[in-house]
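Dataset card, provenance and construction

Sequences and ligand SMILES were collected as paired inputs. For each pair, a complete structure of the chain with the small molecule in place was predicted and serialized as structure tokens. The example below shows a pair involving 2-oxoglutaric acid. Curators did not alter the output after generation; any descriptive sentences attached to a record were derived from the structure itself.
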Amino acid sequence: MSTLREQFNEDGYVLLRNFLEKEQVNSIYTEARKIFAVQIKHVTGKSVDIDDKEVFENAMFEFFEKDFNAFVNTGKTVQHTFSLHRLGLDPKIEDLLKEVGLSNPIIGARAAMQFNSRFLSKDGSKHWKLDAHQDWRTGQGSLDSAVIWFPMVDAGADIGALQVIPGSHKFGLQESNTSGYQGGITSSLKEEDFVQTDFKVGDVLIFSSFLIHQSGNNITNNIRWSVQLRYNNLDEPTFIERGYPMAYIYKPESELVTPNFPTKEQLVEVYS
Ligand SMILES: O=C(O)CCC(=O)C(=O)O
């Protein structure tokens, strides 16, 4: 019986069943849907029950069609919830990272959330389905950097759970184009080398940032809600030698997003 670390080193990933409390996952999912519901009401005029999946998700699609800009910004806003970031700092996560070898873990990139559906895409595939890639290329952190991925809904092949190539974390850094936000590996990969993962809420996948993986194909009419957490190891020698590079760039908007906003009167009102 191999240890978690041996399995991680061998395959480049481990899928842990029932790792998180369902309530913890649900609190992130609920907070995100509540935020979307506010803008759904604002844009479509509809008050939706976030627990009525069909109604809520159809309203998401309508919101996407009616005000793409507000949808994108709301999508960014849900990346900043307390529940999501609290989970990213959970001692359980820290212990897991240590168990697979990140002796001194640090956040590699802001915790992220995805809501994948072909109905939330303007160009057919680019924004809801990632081509085969290695996350290391976008993070460029420690060689042992790791990613934690989990869905917030039960997810198997039909809703497009992640597909991975076991052992591919030892293939080396692959050439890549710039498709999607993670790029896509340009060398030809065999579809049959990919293993389809599947999850119940609470299961998590931890994988090396060099593991080749891709989005599955969500053929359902539902949204596949998922979370991605990325970490580096401060103790990894090449990370130290390279001066702790930080390839994720967050920068502020240089122009006012809402021209001529706010007025002095609005501020006085806020602070009255
Ligand atoms: O959730 C997905 O479909 C892809 C996520 C992914 O591969 C990533 O964020 O690196």
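Derived descriptions for this record:
Residues 114, 116, 130, 135, 162, 182, 213, 215, 226, 228 surround 2-oxoglutaric acid (CB under 6 Å).
The CA atoms of residues 36 and 262 lie 24 Å apart.
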